[in-house]
Write a structure and sequence with these properties.
Elements lengths: L1 H8 L3 E7 L5 E11 L4 E5 L5 H8 L2 E7 L9 E10 L4 H10 L10 E13 L7 E5 L2
Antiparallel strand pairs: 1-2, 1-4, 2-3, 3-6, 4-5, 5-6, 6-7
C-alpha cells in the first residue's frame, strides 16, 4: 500500500467513471486530494454535472490516476473501484482547500470517494509489475 500512496501523493488529477441511466459509462477528470488514513479521495464537483447526476443514482465508481510517459520502463498507474459519499469531514475539507486554495472562492461541493480496491501497475519494479490492495 505504501507504494500506491507514494504514487498518489505525486499526482492531483484522476479520471472517474460513472454509470449512466442507459447503462453506458461516462468519464470525467477531477482534481483530488488523497487521504491515506481513510484510503479516500476528496474531489470537488457540482450537482449539475453529468457524473454527479450519475453518482446520485449509483454511488459505485471506478477510475484511474496515471503518469503520462512514453517510456515503457517508467509506466505507472492506479486503477481503483470505490463508493462516493456525499459528506466530507472538516479535516478533509481543510486538506482539499490547502491543496487547491483557489477553490474556496468557488464554494464547491466536496465529495469523498472511499476506495475499496486498487490495482497499481509499476514498471519501475519490473515490466508489468502489479500491486493489489483491497479494503478488508
Amino acid at each position: 500500500m505504501k507504494q500506491i500512496c507514494n504514487f498518489l501523493k505525486k499526482h492531483h488529477v484522476l479520471t472517474l467513471s460513472t454509470q449512466c441511466e442507459d447503462k453506458t459509462s461516462a468519464c470525467c477528470n477531477l482534481f483530488f486530494v488523497y487521504i491515506e488514513e481513510l484510503q479516500s479521495f476528496i474531489v470537488a464537483s457540482d450537482y449539475k454535472t453529468e457524473h454527479i447526476k450519475n453518482i446520485l443514482r449509483n454511488f459505485n465508481v471506478s477510475g484511474t490516476v496515471v503518469l503520462e510517459t512514453n517510456i515503457v520502463g517508467k509506466i505507472q498507474g492506479v486503477q481503483f473501484k470505490g463508493v462516493v459519499l456525499a459528506s466530507c469531514q472538516n479535516e478533509e475539507q481543510k486538506a482539499y482547500y490547502k491543496a487547491f486554495p483557489y477553490a474556496i472562492a468557488l464554494s464547491p461541493t466536496l465529495w469523498k470517494i472511499r476506495v475499496d480496491s486498487f490495482k497499481f501497475t509499476d514498471n519501475t519494479l519490473g515490466f508489468g509489475k502489479k500491486l493489489h490492495w483491497s479494503r478488508e
